[in-house]
Amino acid sequence: MLVSRQSAMEASRSPKPFQRLKKRHSATVICPPPLLPLRMAELRPGMENERAGVVRDTMLQNHLILKPELGKTRSRCSRLPGSDFVYGLTLRGTDGGVPEAIGHWNSVKPISKATKELPRDFVAMNRGAVVAGLVTTKEHYRYRQTHDIRRPEDDKRHFKRDPPRLPDAMTYGMPPRPSTPIIDVFQHKYKELWMEGQRAAAEARHKGKQKIRQRGKVYETYSTVLKKYKQPMQPDPLWHLPHFEKVGRHLDTFPSCSSWRTSSS
């Protein structure tokens, strides 16, 4: 009896087939409704966007005023469609689907290759006209009308449409330069080479200037010396404050100039 009761209890606890179907997600869960901007009715105490005073829904639809909620992505205050909305372009089929595929087959029309007109061989026609003894332009023109010679497709004098077969190991473009040795980078070898090149270039310029000077050497004469002579100019006297300039005496206590000279000497 105990075993039968336990088995009956386990059977009653185990979900039945129709009960399992009830636990499945509904259409609203699979395809949620469109996502709308935040509204006043959705505000709760303690939220970041809680306002005091006059609050309007338009204030919560401005992304410059709206604050990001903790643990949620930042809202841009835009209305988003639900999960049943498909982004992108809708491609509508132009065929009839399976019935048309089973009913008949679309036969592909063969592509007719247009016959290419071969170019005229003017070299052969001119040669034939000369052999025939024709000289004037009018005679050559009539000869070309009666003797229309075309150049064959396998003419080796011109390039064919298909390029020649190239080797498999062929590399297009310029070959890469060899890698720079790291020891030369550590030793500043390229700096020394550049400095040597600069010194050699400076020395070559100096030698070239010396050769030019020797070629255009001018002997010094009396006239050249006079041309080069610059007359010395007296420098302007320094400016002194008038307060410190020597001022004549205000009182003359000497009876004569001779007595003043004897006193100063």
Automatic annotation (TrEMBL):
A Pfam family the protein falls into: CFAP77
InterPro entries assigned to the protein according to its UniProt record, in alphabetical order: CFAP77
Domain of life of the source: Eukaryota
Basic and acidic residues composition-biased segments: 152-165
Disordered as annotated region, ranges: 1-20, 152-178
Protein name as catalogued: Cilia- and flagella-associated protein 77
